[in-house]
Amino acid sequence: MSQTATHNAQGHDDHGHHKENFITKYVFSQDHKMISKQFLITGIIMGCFGMIMSILFRLQLAWPDSSFPILETLLGSKWAPGGKLDSSFYMGLVTIHGTIMVFFVLTAGLSGTFSNLLIPLQVGARDMASPFMNMLSYWFFFASSVVLTASVFIESGPAAAGWTVYPPLSALPKAMPGSGLGMTMWLISMVLFIGSALLGGINYITTVLNMRTKGMSMNRMPLTIWAFFFTAILGLLSFPVLLGGSLLLVFDRSFGTSFYLSDIFLNGEGALANSGGSPILFQHLFWFLGHPEVYIIILPALGITSEIIAVNARKPIFGYTAMVISIIGIAFLSFIVWGHHMFITGMNPLLGLVFMVFTLIIAVPSAVKTFNYLATLWRGNIQFTPGMLFAIGLVSFFISGGLTGIFLGNAAIDIQLHDTYFVVAHFHLVMGCAAIFGMMAGIYHWYPRLYGRTMNKTLGYMHFWLTFVSAYMVFFPMHFIGLAGVPRRYYQFSVLPEFGVWDDVNVLITMAAILGAAAQLLFLYNFFSSIFFGKKSEQNPWKSNTLEWTAPIEERLHGNWPGAIPTVHRWPYDYSKPGYEDDFIPQTVPDDGNEEELAHQHTTAPIIPESTDKSEVVHFSALLSKWFGFKNL
Amino acid sequence: MIAAKEREYEFDTKRVNPKMFAMWLLIVAIVMLFAGLTSAYIVRMGEGNWYKFDLPIQFLYSTIVIIGSSFTMWWAYRSAKNDEINQVKIGLITTFILALGFCYLQFLGWKSMNAMDLFFADDIHGDKVSASFIYALSGLHLAHMLGGVLFLFIQIVRAFRHRIHKKNLLSTNMCNTYWHFVGILWVYLFLFFYFAH
Description:
heterodimer; A: two-stranded antiparallel sheet; 18 helices; B: mainly alpha; Four Helix Bundle (Hemerythrin (Met), subunit A)
């Protein structure tokens, strides 16, 4: 049976192979499940690089005047002379850490992994719309990772202008050591990365819109798919603009144009000939991508959380329609708020006001999502799996990091706090930690879907608690450092005596960072050993409704289902439905005709079941829909 | 049974063909690229210190040529729909020749800008970023155009191998769409340069 199916599935892919060999199965694979694993493992490796870099520069920040002979052994005498980190290399580490985490781990590693794995499986398709483009997407990403990683090892050092690569540091090859070849490699890597993101994004959108199985209407899609869908749209609309901005940067660097350069006086060279350019122009182009980019990072994590929280609270997700509207709202608003990264560029105060108002409005859909998570958890029959813990951890970080976003969105406050550790604390919590926790939640939850085995639970719990505590210990104190005006990206605070009061806090933060990094070793061990020795998983380990658990997880067929693709009869959140023996009803179970779907579709007001201990929740949602006229999509 | 499954896999519904749809998304991405860069042009212009000059006349000629090529492409596609294979060949070849003509006219346009002392990278006179922008945008458009020319060439080869007919139109349709798009994109850029400088 499965033999035939594999044969059929391959027959569709135009490559005509009947038996997959090592290369077509593991290397140039066109199976979305294998590509998803490739994205994940590359993302994990890049994540380790990024994490090691953060430990290196945290050592410098905690003990700026000490030397660590081991660093000289590891990094050589150029980058760590006498065991003390070189200042140029410190800047390079900060830059590459940011680039890796933002793009390679949390964009490609998160969205690439889970969009690839879940879109075809959850909408009921045998593969992506174009498996070939999907494969290209991974290999562009791979090449991009290789170029960026290689740039750390070249003689003049990696790009060092910060992950936002503002000109003139990025536009003048002679500005500093990292502005030369390192910056060129950064740009090459980014162009490849944009290629990968566009190929992937086009595929994701096409698959969601064109390849859904019978019965899978848009309003029956799991929230994961909604999130991946809008993430892909954001990427499609914003990455080309970064490409345009980078091209102009390349012209400035290599062809002598002056798009971003004007009136520069370079030490040792005198005044340069460049004139008429505007460095602020780059910031506009960069942040037009840069702001949607943070939602490209967080939306998939939020989608994953919606699914995991509903499954493990054994309750329908609270406010499905409101969740979808919030995703759309966040996606739309993300395009008109980029100016809040540039309040101190001397922009027209009226324009600043507009950006500020739109920025603060984003708090509304974000809060809707948060309240919906909490309402879903409320009085649920919560299963504390490691995946669930990480999902709840995301909600925690999203709240604590999101609140400081309201401070920073105010132009008047941002002018004081711009480029301080307050900003570092804000975005690491709301975007960094929250998205990493979403990614971890996804890995623990869908590990059986990826490898047919489960990860070790005990190690998972240890991993969660150590990471959760250490992440707060690292980033929470940074708020206070930032409020005191300590700027980010500085190399050596010991030369600025007024910041001496923070020395102990910096030591604490570094200790916590080392603890957090050590906790990731548990995860790495758990992840890689479970591939081979993990406990075999049953077909639907979390008793989930969505389609991915109807395809055999033991034999991961290219084509997903051995027989026909299942038909969908209901939305994915029928958990603990009154009158049913099981507390879950998979999407493939036909409607028996005399039931109505709980709190969902075909009715303007949700049906309130007569006897259920969750009646308050449902009742509240009925009131909301009456008051605000929420119609189902 | 296998045939039935293949159908289910390929086209479960009567929605737009996924490849065609992906093509539209590619066009959206290219639109965003140019929207970003023309916005940058406006932002930079708004900052003042902007050198004004008249566009070389060759750009007007190239605009006319590219509009013409859109018509011949449309004619070729319509002929393909009617199974008039010879007209398809003539239409595609004419489009191809007009496309090369467009490229040549763009080249002449740049040459006459050079003659006006307007260079892509000007580090002697300075302040002529306006010219750099026009070089960059028209050059980037030409790069996208060359992708279309390649696509067109493939269509010509396919036409001579009898691969284009009433029942095999997807690829030609995609080429047709892309070609009209790069045409419209140039018309937009031309009008943009004409009115905003």
